[in-house]
Design brief:
The complex is a heterodimer of chains A (114) and B (112). Chain A has no helices and eleven strands. Chain A has strands at residues 3-7, 10-13, 19-26, 32-38, 44-52, 55-58, 64-70, 73-78, 87-94, 104-105, 109-113. In chain A, the strands form two sheets. In chain A, strands 2, 4, 5, 6, 9, 10 and 11 form a seven-stranded mixed sheet that branches. In chain B, strands 1, 3, 4, 8, 9 and 10 form a six-stranded mixed sheet that branches. Chain B has a four-stranded antiparallel sheet with strand order 2-7-6-5, with no helix packed on it. The mean pLDDT of chain B is 92. The chains are: A mainly beta (114), B mainly beta (112). At the A-B interface, strand 5, strand 9 and strand 10 of A face strand 4, strand 8 and strand 9 of B.
Amino acid sequence: SQTIHQWPATLVQPVGSPLSLECTVEGTSNPNLYWYRQAAGRGLQLLFYSVGIGQISSEVPQNLSASRPQDRQFILSSKKLLLSDSGFYLCAWWPGGGQGNEQFFGPGTRLTVL
Amino acid sequence: DAKTTQPNSMESNEEEPVHLPCNHSTISGTDYIHWYRQLPSQGPEYVIHGLTSNVNNRMASLAIAEDRKSSTLILHRATLRDAAVYYCILSKISGGYNKLIFGAGTRLAVHP
């Protein structure tokens, strides 16, 4: 069966510090991978998606970046965090194929920037 | 991107049916209707999806209007574990990937 992991689970970082969040998927190959952010009390905002190794597309311009160094690894980074980067970050994967296939979400990372 | 409109919150009593409405008047012919739910501090969980016909699974039923401009998620017997935020989402394939556009969702409270 497939599983998706995210770490760390929680993170408190000062403004201006770097960020690296990691997501890995097990039990599948060549998944489409996604990074979402959820502000408090809001819905999910799509940040990045990837259809393959080294292929990253951005939905929203910001000071965040994403990389996919391996087929089942997706990394979200920032060189300098802003207060507005606080939120709940979710990684998801999609097996491809038809639109009827669901996206599977990870447990999330709660980031607080102080 | 086509958007969905849902009530901010709804309440139900345990063991009673719950009908969660969703309007998507700008839906296109190839958009699928997906429902996900999210428990506090967890990632969203898939509930059900459909295109034109009504759908049933072990979690819920999805009733889709004939013109596809609205849909209703039906929980047949609400339990306390069904208390969550429910998202009605239109899914489309764009550039080879599956794009989900999340709205604010409906927060469902279930009373014992």
